[in-house]
Amino acid sequence: SRVGILSNLTLAELRPLSTPHGIYDYGFPVATPGTHWMHAHTLQEQQLLAAPLIFTDPAEGGVDEQPVVVLFHDFSFKAPEEVLAGLTGPAPASGNGSMAGQSMSGMSGMSGGQGMAMPMDVNDIEYDAYLANDRTLDDPQVFTVERNGMVRLRLINGATATAFWIDTGALEGEVIAVDGNPVVPLRGHRFPLAMGQRIDIMLSIPSGAGAWPILALREGGVQRTGFVLATKGGVVKRIASAGDKAEPALDLSFEAKLAAAKPFVERPADVNEPVELGGAMQGYSWTLNGKTWGNHRPISVKKGERVELTMRNASMMGHPMHLHGHHFRVVAIDGHRFAGAMRDTVWVPPMRALTIAFDASNPGTWAFHCHHLYHMATGMMTVVDYTA
After folding, report:
1. Does the pLDDT at position 383 exceed 70?
2. Residue 326, domain member (yes or no)
3. What is the mean pLDDT of the segment spanning 297-303?
4. Does a structural domain hold residue 377?
5. Sign of the dihedral through C-alpha 192, 344, 172, 133
6. What is the CATH number of the domain that holds 381?
7. Whether the model pTM is above 0.85
8. Burial class (CB in 10 A: 0-12, 13-18, 19+), 144
9. d(Cα 33, Cα 21) in Å, to the nearest integer?
10. What is the distance between the alpha carbons of residues 263 and 182, in angstroms, rounded to a whole number?
């Protein structure tokens, strides 16, 4: 397995362990306080090979808040290799093309040339369970919180192939960070969380006794998972593991409202690279600029350059695009410029375009891939390569 950590460790330095029970020590500087995580990059996330990695900020040492760290997963009793074989194998002769263990749940996408709605492939895998800290809603984790207290949710989507909506229910949440980077606070009750993304949400606990479910709702489905915040004396009621109706697909409405609290200095880009996100369920092959991993074209940069990547999603599935070794800023949606959040993973819906900017300040060879790990496993990956 490989451990992915945003640090000064390049792709070449992340060596596989020599034996199944071997030990390898990683040493790296902690450059960015925040909510991070470490995980395998060989489909073993589905087998729960992942863990939170929280770097606290010494400047926040006096803040009176209770941290609640939750890692979400999708889980299958099938081995990842079996799921992948079902996805890449021949489609059945009839039906809508779904394969064993695969979901072809569709939602209306952009209109086609004749005014017909194009199907959006929201989910391509049906899982046996959706987990919050390795537990389902049949037996959710209950965090004891204090009345009138402040809770800081540090939520991590460690799912292999599932995006969620985070629903804080009766409690209004205030988002203060995404992907470990502070943002201008943004209030609400529902927030998107794609695979690989993290979100920090502040909650104010009421003065009376109570229990408040915090749910992760599966995009495009009725399934859900979550946990409970409860005061002493609060009554925890049973929570159904399925909702009454399918949740909508993730969109960019939340992303368009985010703004970095600590942005980088604005300046023109030295490099502008188009990146087309392609692929299809038929044949199950996913590409960047028409190439799969192994035939990929590296994105070449030089140290000191400001680099912009404009990703255009030409497929009918959303893709959480993740860049190793850097934080980037979201600077445009569908060509409309704005000063967005600093991130390392961003959601690109079907038939949409999104531009990110980053400073080439960390020399090496860095993976750039879709964090739907079955998409990555079937080709949706390249590298950002520093040249002399």
Report:
1. yes
2. yes
3. 97
4. yes
5. positive
6. 2.60.40.420
7. yes
8. exposed
9. 31
10. 9
